[in-house]
Design goal:
Elements: H1 2-7, E1 12-17, E2 26-30, E3 44-49, E4 52-62, E5 77-78, H2 87-100, H3 104-111, E6 128-132, H4 138-147, H5 149-160, E7 164-165, H6 166-171, H7 176-184, E8 188-192, H8 215-226, E9 232-238, H9 244-256, E10 261-265, H10 273-282, E11 287-290, H11 296-308, E12 313-316, E13 328-334, H12 351-362, E14 365-370, H13 375-382, E15 387-391, E16 402-407, E17 413-414, E18 417-418, H14 419-430, E19 434-438, E20 447-450, E21 458-459, E22 464-465, E23 467-469, E24 474-476, E25 483-485, E26 498-501, H15 505-515, E27 521-524, H16 534-543, E28 549-552, E29 565-570, H17 584-596, E30 607-612, H18 618-641, E31 649-657, H19 661-670, E32 678-691, E33 694-703, H20 706-720, E34 730-735
Parallel strand pairs: 9-14, 9-15, 10-12, 10-13, 11-12, 13-14, 16-30, 19-28, 19-29, 27-28, 29-30
Antiparallel strand pairs: 1-2, 1-4, 3-4, 3-5, 6-7, 6-8, 17-18, 20-26, 21-22, 23-24, 24-25, 31-33, 31-34, 32-33
Helix pairs in contact: 2-3, 4-5, 5-7, 8-9, 17-18
The structure holds adenosine-5'-diphosphate and zinc ion (2 copies).
Protein name: Replication restart protein PriA
Keywords: ATP-binding, DNA replication, DNA-binding, Helicase, Hydrolase, Isomerase, Metal-binding, Nucleotide-binding, Primosome, Zinc
Organism: Cognaticolwellia beringensis
Amino acid sequence: MTVFLAITSTDIYVQVAIPVPMRQLFTYKVPAELNTKAITLGERVIVPFGSRQVVAIVLSIDESTEYAAAKIKSVLSRVTDNFSFSPTLLNFIQRCSDYYHHPIGDVFQQALPVLLRQIKQPDVELPQIWLTKTDLSEAEQATTAKRSPKQAELLTMLKQHQGMTWSELLTLGFNKAQLNALEKKQFIYSKPREVAEFKWQEQALLQDNRLALSAEQAIIVATVKEMQSQFSCHLVDGITGSGKTEVYLQAIEQILARSQQVLVLVPEIGLTPQTLSRFEQRFNVPISLHHSGLNDKERLQTWLEAQRGTAAIVIGTRSAIFTPLHDLGLIIVDEEHDASFKQQDSFRYHARDIAILRARQLNIPIILGSATPSFESLQNALSGKYHYHRLRKRAGNASTAKITLIDVAQQQMEHGLSGTLKQAIKNTLARGEQALIFLNRRGYAPAINCQECHWVADCQRCNKPYTLHQGQGLLICHHCGSQKRIPPQCPSCGSVRIKPIGQGTEQLEEKISALFPDYSTVRIDRDSTRKKGALAKLLTEVGNKEHQLLIGTQMLAKGHHFPDVTLVAVLDVDGALFSYDFRAAEHMAQLLVQVSGRAGRASKPGKVMVQSNFPDHPLLQDLVHNGYQHFAKQALIERQQALLPPFSYQALFRAEANYPSYPEKFLRAMTEIPFEGCQFAGPVPAAMEKKAGKFRFHLILQAKSRKQLHQAVFTLIQQSANNEWQSKVRWSIDIDPVDL
Ligand code: ADP
Ligand code: ZN
Ligand code: ZN
């Protein structure tokens, strides 16, 4: 068809996706003079839209149109850079839009790097890579080592892995000053990374650093190999330190040997220097990184490298699932249970779920790995839909950390620490080991109040207390982000006795430093790691044993290796035991097991202490005595009896407005028609009923089959146009919601 169109001299028509929240395509004319080289599907074109010009994506090409030709606007120009969507990627994105019932234009918007959505064309150069001078003398290196150990470290790194990009180095904890200093001394130089046409199978593996696999590991690698050219989903369920990463590495090796590419998805924080350096140390291939620390240009470069086939391995967070890959052979989703894979606004996709979709579309294997698999994946594995692999032992001779519960109702508490815990911390420090104290609440205190009249500083837009951030001298609402100075006096009674209530990590750090003045305390949370490279720096310091006491939020629960941490303390788990959210227990168990996994790597045995007011709670007891597996299987039985996911399928309709009656009425109107095999629950006020000044309501649609769910959602969207409250609310759909 394209050929025929190319040789005609008449106008043609295209339907395009435009980055607006509308569930439709828009038709434009392509004047013959613009179509001398035939336009293709997936191409980007610039079109007039209202008073603006926007970049649109061509999704269909037609010879005629049902609209009056005079009314149709023309495409202004075609984007002529070297990126266009391959048919498979185009199809993948369309399927994502269908599955999540999300406007196609917005899905493209989220999938494309910013620079490819702009009218002004970016000038993309190939990324610069850094190398060491070949004739670097021993003497030169020795001087550097003496004067600046960090520069020497950088030099050694570059010597081992010739050709690293600045973003890779940054992720490894180096800074620009170190790089500049070495360049000035002419020890290193940079050049553009070339479009390597090389086949990496011969050079891929760096010599001899592959480990001899255990029997359990070997079976997984062999099974994946057997299924290399077909879709298969593998769940690797193994405790922290059981050798999952080693399995990934050897599975990747097989794919690289076929000159195919690998996509590795990691949680936001899992993209640690350690992860990258393990890949760097194993393979002699270009690795591209894709994470929120990159700027727009770097992100585009990752894309283009992947598409050209220059990058052999792409490691990235959630949105890396949309990376175009020249010849993708394997997808790995590490820590597949992690909440960061689900996008929680606008296009609410789950990167793990669409990764499976993508693997299926490409007929390639996908590996999901976790120490605490999500109930969804676990159920699919238990039912035989996925290949289920377990790694039961820690690799080497490291033993598993033992969890003990501390009954805090029976004890005197000091700054949130029981006497038992304080003693355990003391003993750990005395042995020269490190302790990690986990508190999932950042800031100084979760609220401030007046000691006289009990006034509490609430965010007016959310009806929730402000969190005190003492260091910044601010009250910050963790729900809408609004900020306020700390009032010197109570606005209600004028008293100056305003005090923090409760404790966050910032305060804990202060109190712990005071309790253990002879040791160094470090806090790792979103606040202390805001600056680029800050997390890497803190982790390096911890690794060098510059700090003995580590305080952190769930950021610290994930993926990091702390070989000298032998005590992990969890200050408070009670919130999850009595939650309205049916997933709270699952998430609490995952967090607890993940934090526990930080303790006692290497050969030193680890200990985990969990403080609770309800140490006899059956959920805690089951988890501690029988482990996550048993706990999860029990919980799955309960979910099945209650017909909750994964034994049913849900869509969540969210609506919000300035008045509470509108969203409620809008959602209630939706429930008027029944759907076969489906039930409505709600509308009910959201858990955060008011947020950023808007009143919010939820309606859940639950179905026995996905098909019934999708049909009902489809119909509800069609009918929403006739809903009389439609224009008064903002509403959205969340398929497979995880956060109610
Ligand atoms: P996970 O990813 O499950 O946390 P890793 O793959 O990081 O586990 O393995 C934990 C530790 O055990 C690492 O130091 C790794 O080098 C080592 N290890 C993994 N597999 C083996 C093996 N087959 N033989 C010896 N050591 C191993
Ligand atoms: Zn007061
Ligand atoms: Zn607020």
